[in-house]
Amino acid sequence: MSHLTERFLPLGVSSFEELRQGGFAYVDKTEMVCRLASTRRGRFLLARPRRFGKSLLVSTFESLFRHGLRDFRGLAIEKLWSDKTYDVVRLDFSETRRFASAEQFQKRLAGLLTREFGSLGFVYQENPSRTVCEQLSEWLRSRAADSLVILIDEYEAPLTACLDRPELFNQAGVLMSEFYAALKNSGDTLRFLFVTGIVRFSKTGIFADAVNSIVDITLKPQYGTLLGFTQEEIGRCLADRIEQAAQALGVTASQALDLIGSRYGGYCFDELSSTRVSSPWAVLYFLKNPRSTVWKYWIRSGGSISDLFKKHVRSPSLTDPEQYGSWLSVDRHALSLPPDAQALDDVVLLMQAGYLTIKEIRNNTIFLGYPNCEVAEAMARYYTQLLLKGKNPAAGGLKDLREHLAGCDVQAFAGDLSRAFLAIDSCGHPVTDKAGCRALVSVFLNCAGIPARSESHNTLGRTGIEFAFGGVNWLLEVNFAKTGENAKALLAKVMNEMRDRRAGEQDKKGRLMRLGLVFSEDERRFVECDAESIETDVEGRVCKTH
Fold this sequence. Notes:
The chain is of the alpha/beta class and 546 residues long.
């Protein structure tokens, strides 16, 4: 399907049958669906952040195995699929996530299994000596070979619900392992098993041998775009919606597409770091109501970042605002969470939850960072709350940043930043060096909705903080005046350094503004400021400086 111009946007639709029969837009992923479904006795696990279409994917498999090609007319799989239909059991483990004890979870699990497998003839008889999983295992082995498809959504929901209660976490894990052991020991009954979730727990400990038979495709390059939209897919399949968004925002279609990618894209689910996708939830809501500023569609669909950090995040690299925007590194082999809730790797947890993504891979080291502007701004707001100890950012000088930048009033802009720095809790977050000062400037800019990135590189050297705003490409560099140092001399130094390395000239066309600021350690504010405006032609050559 190459064009979906007259179709409805499938906002909140997670049923493939409803999507297809209701005439909703669908970005065709069925070639990859067919590749997986064609694997005889295939057993797969796929983890993705929330709102990436996992439930819709499970529903797609359900429709294919239960109804054949009924709902797939006009899609890629129509010419590829020739298998028969099967009995299908679909389990949503999020239904079992509310429990206060192992006994309660056991009852919820038994209820779910009894109801869903009961539709195919399984009868659970309460017996203290034979659990529901033991009885289910026996029933599964009694079925004919290749006769059953099992689809599991949010497999780890009961475990993530009690991450902060280690004893209950382990008890729930033991009960879940009995269920997965029943699946493993079902002989040749299962034609296909597909499991989705957000968090990937390692194949040791509570899951032991039960999960080892399942192939984890979470970071397999061939399935890196199975969920989420690539830029090519958005431009091809939603072309008219992109045109409408472009008209609403007063930009070209190409610029609107780039806007979507920078705001809501950048996610990498590929161990080779070769593919990137956008959050489908955010893209669809943006196309429904295009906005000129970054709107937090995906962020607002989940819980509070503050609550997540309070419960599960301890690493200084994540809790220190001065580390904002810095890439974090993890070993390639550490991307699965350990089975012990007390040994969680919070960096990996944030990656799997969607707040960090793969940026680059070097040998066995994976570098993680914020995927896009939506996440970067949300994290900046969280760090601003920490820095200001709950004070209103507007009262801290941030409410006028955008206005003063739009007018290129750099003195007023420096004053806004100074008020923000003076509002920082200096005991909890002292500003002691240039790097920390620059990081906090980046935090405040992003908090104000100005997408700024720090410390990029080009062939002419390293730059400071870069951002585009008000039709101007800005390059901001900070210097730090310790007690007794000459602030004016430090300002001259930073401006000369930017000129010498022709900072920003190589890859910026149009108007470039170089801005230098000097922060005083004693006064806790910016005491010197200077700016230089540069006009470049279409080939990046300087044609005017003032």
